[in-house]
Amino acid sequence: MMVIQTAFVLLAFAANSLLCRWALREYNFDPENFTMIRLVSGAVVLSLLLWFQNARAATHNRVSIKAPRFWFLGLGLFVYAAAFSMAYVSLDTGVGAFVLFATVQIGLQLVNIWRGEHPGRWQVAGMLVSISGLALLLLPGSAVYSWWAVLLMVVSAVGWTSFVVLGQGSSTPLADVQAAFVAASILSMLLLPFAAVAELLDWQPLLLAILSGAVASGVGYFGWYQVLPWLGIHRAAQVQLLVPGLAVLMGALVLSEHLTLLMLLAMAMIVAGVLIAIRARQATA
């Protein structure tokens, strides 16, 4: 059962990239609208799931709206979601997923170094291989047409990294994620002046945005915290390597996105570099 649930979670994570790119490319949906709908629908589903969990366990796990933690978590998630949507106006599904994935992994390594952890030579080697793969992915002629979009995806990765770092060691991860979505939903109202409200009448991209928020994000994150104790931290980090690869496959199958040998080589280097770093850290833990 846990294997099936883990597979669903990984597919849900990869589907976020597909659903966003699908709505923006095929229907010219506004990225601000996608961000707001994704965050609000995710907040609704996670609030219901948290209420149900608390009711079953007779607990009251929640983060107060007055707590600074509530707004810091929300800000990290909002930056991630907003920049993510804007980047996918120009980036293909797989390319965007790998830029996000590589930048997050490099960012987490840098946070550990800043905290005083001294990486071993294999961890450093792994990080350098990932950086080289990312550089290769972004070379001229590699099908990345917008450096502005790449920069936005890097900003998105910074937002997600801050969200992960702030949530590390949480005793109530579902409550923290639900609080982050609620706070991010409130912050997303800042995008209203830039949103094309008339587009909300177009049900097809609207449905894609709701699926991204309610299923791929809301149910996906809930499922992730259910399987995390079973997977363990190191195995969880390793299985996440499948997410950008799944996004590439989804983009190719659903949106007929083109893959080159150079892109595949670069993506393989990113995954190999992260795997080397994870293995090295596991060996020294």
Q: What does the radius of gyration come to?
A: 18 Å
Span between N and C termini? Answer: 29 Å
Range of strand content? under 5%
**Count of DSSP H/I helices:** 11
Which sequence of SSEs, written as H and E, runs from N to C? HHHHHHHHHHH
Low-confidence stretches: none
Shape: globular
Q: Total domains, how many?
A: 1
Mean pLDDT over the full residue set: 85
The biggest beta sheet is recorded as: none
The total count of strands amounts to 0
Helix content: over 70%
Broad structural category:
mainly alpha
Which tags fit this structure?
11 helices, 285 residues, mainly alpha
Written overview of the protein:
The chain has 285 residues and is mainly α. It has one domain. It contains eleven helices and no strands. It has helices at 2-27, 31-57, 68-87, 93-114, 121-137, 147-167, 173-188, 203-231, 233-239, 242-254, 261-284. Helix 4 (93-114) runs antiparallel to helix 10. The protein is globular and about 45 Å long. The two termini are 29 Å apart. The model has no long low-confidence stretch (mean pLDDT 85).
